[in-house]
Amino acid sequence: MIIYIAVAAMSGLTILVLLHGLRSLVLSGSKLESRLQPFAIPGAPTDEVAEKQPDLSDRLNSYFNTRTFAGSIADKLWQAGVELTVPQYVLIKLAAALIPFVVFVLMRRSVLGIVFGLLCFLIPNLWLRRKNRRRRAEFEQQLPDTLTLIVGGLRAGFSLQHSLVNVAKQAPEPTAAEFKRIGQEVHLGVPLLQALDNLVQRM
Asked: How do the residues of the chain divide into helix, strand and coil, expressed in percent and rounded to 5?
């Protein structure tokens, strides 16, 4: 029994070390811009990255960005308001599945290890869906006030784009983040109407 407890403790410590290492692998800023980069029009102005990513981070992000599933995961992370990159999220899922599997295998319960490993692998997905539903509900509750801000800006003589910028500055979360993303997309060269349509698709 002491051996099993020690294995579990070491597994927990492994997760902490893994998460700490992942934190240093990704940029602290420009997460949103990296997600929006595929929408950028060639030649459109973009902000330069203040600091160069570590080589390992470059390789991880490059690997996941070339995979078709990465875009879907990135969208789900954004919709849920989770500040994780695709590599972070995938590695967390793998760690969550691996630890119970190893523990049960050491206890000579391989079948249970597979079952619990799969369950733990799926738990982050369920958590992400729950946060996504909650964030959408909050956005819908804030929608009347958002429309009031937009209409107020238009009546004051501001352009639609300027009114949307005001919403990004004055509205609470998650509305502010969504309208800031509209500004980011427009800055990267996405037409305003398309950026608004992207918002509708997300929310």
From this structure: 75, 0, 25
